Amino acid sequence: MPEVPTTDVELRRLGRILLAQVRIIAAQVTPAAVIPESALPDAPEVAEWTEPLRYRYALRAQIGLDAGVSADEAIRRAVEAFITGGFDILQERRAGTVAVRVVVTGSRAGFRIDVRVWPATGDVVYVGVTPAVALRAPRARPDPFGAAETVEPGHVLCYECDGLGWCPACSGFSWVVDDAGLRQSCPECREQRFCPICRGAGQLQIARLRPPERAFYPELADPLKREDES
Ligand SMILES: [Zn+2]
Ligand SMILES: [Zn+2]
After folding, report:
1. 117/101 Cα distance (integer angstroms)
2. What does pTM read for this prediction?
3. pLDDT means per 10 residues in the chain (230 residues)?
4. What residues does 176 pair with on adjacent strands?
5. CA of 196, nearest ligand number
6. Which ligand is closest to the CA of 172, given by its number?
7. Which residues contact 136 (CB under 8 A, 6 or more apart)?
8. Structure confidence at residue 7 (pLDDT)
9. From the CA of 197, how far away is ligand 1's center (Å)?
10. Residue 147 alpha carbon to ligand 1 centre in Å
11. Cα–ligand 2 centroid distance for 149 (angstroms)
12. Distance from Cα 200 to the centre of ligand 1, integer Å
């Protein structure tokens, strides 16, 4: 069953829930600091370059350890806060290029929150993402430029795009979806978007057809079938 696209309003609501969740966690780990409203960006980001695109809100807030609280204590509080909130927990130690950091990750219902602690510097960073959701309906095929009835005299519908005018491989979107469901630059039009044969006209001039192109049009082979028969 195709996924029903989420509206901007619903996705924004998920962003608000994320901010509230991070604030609840932070209130237990670093109660002296307040996660500002501005930690939640105005717009969502693309989470997955699939068709349709999937979006999510990503939040980041950098603060420091409360005075008198050790990194170990903050990490212990983070684990505790996630357990209390019913999150699944993952904890790992990562050796960064500058300093070692400890990351406690909590996930619940598609939301994911990191509490990242740098014991050497006392920095604490909260990172959170909402579930990734499709925001718009999958693309529809655009209307063709040309149709059999609208072809100009002395022309035929383009054999490559059937009068669509847009690149037949990507339907004029400049990208295609690969086997993994990810967007790739269109190999057919190289992001020019137009049909490479008719260059967007949707029709071709009969007099300029090369013999192999002419072979696509059986009606051109028999002069008796020409439209201007008299
Ligand atoms: Zn294309
Ligand atoms: Zn064409």
Report:
1. 5
2. 0.66
3. 69 95 96 92 87 88 92 95 94 72 94 94 95 77 69 90 88 85 88 88 92 90 54
4. 184
5. 2
6. 1
7. 5, 52, 53
8. 82
9. 12
10. 20
11. 16
12. 11
Domains of the chain, first to last: 8-134 (3.30.2030.30), 148-225 (no CATH)
Please name which of 131, 22, 32, 125 lies closest in space to residue 82, comparing C-alpha atoms. 22
What is the whole-number distance in angstroms between the Cα of residue 187 and the centre of ligand 2? 16
User: Which residues have CB atoms below 5 A from the ion given as ligand 2?
Assistant: 158, 160-161, 195, 197-198
Rg over CA atoms, the chain = 29
Q: Enter the tokens of residue 208.
A: 């300029």
Distance 208 CA to ligand 1 centre (A): 24
Crossing angle of helices 8-29 and 71-84, rounded to 10°:
130
**How many angstroms is it from 55 CA to the middle of ligand 1?**
24
